[in-house]
Amino acid sequence: VSNRDFKHPLTEKGREQSWALARSLQGTPVARLFTSPLMRAVQTAEVVGGALGLPYEVTDALREYDCGILEGRLDEACWRLHVAQREAWLKDRRWDERIEGGESFYDIRDGFVHGVTQSGGAPASGGAGGPRAGTRQGKPRSCCRRRRFTSGGCS
After folding, report:
1. 11 Rama sector, left if φ>0, alpha if ψ -120 to 50, beta otherwise
2. Is 34 exposed, middle or buried (0-12, 13-18, 19+ CB in 10 A)?
3. Measured between alpha carbons, how far is 139 from 143 in angstroms, rounded to an integer?
4. What are residue 133's DSSP bridge partners?
5. Among 3, 6, 31, 16, which residue's Cα sits nearest to residue 102?
């Protein structure tokens, strides 16, 4: 688990996914492009922004959440805890739970809302210019006018 570190570039699969996202957005009116400061997310934004002729904005609001004591670990027990935490949020709706030293779902939500609002746009709308696109953890997330937050991002 490495959500605090900036140093991890896109993998080959991540590069393929970023180009696929860029192709899928061709012809879609995207008003703004936001990215997490993590290297792999910035690299995705570079590909997508380059393909769309759109500059990107780096915002901490899209930074990966803090996994506390799991940061830097790769063992099986770590991944079990990581998955269990995600299931507590997404299946059981226990939004206030966190891994020791990490963030709760509420912390993540509040940081996102504050950060995007500070970036000049309300998070609940793509605005008149079209939808926003963002990347987090190198995974594309297209935030559309019809916003409903799900485990995979905005739908």
Report:
1. beta
2. buried
3. 13
4. 33, 142
5. 3
Please write the tens of the pLDDT for every residue from 26-64: 999 998 899 988 889 999 999 999 999 999 999 888 877
CB 56 within 8 A of CB 45: yes
The per-residue pLDDT for 2 is 58
pLDDT 10s digits, 61-92: 887 778 888 888 888 988 898 889 989 999 99
Q: What is the pLDDT of residue 9?
A: 87
CA-closest candidate to residue 103, choices 90, 87, 86, 116: 86
Q: Are 68 and 98 in contact (CB under 8 A)?
A: yes
Whether the model clears a pTM of 0.90, i.e. scores above it, the answer is: no
Are 62 and 36 in contact by the 8 Å Cβ rule? The answer is yes
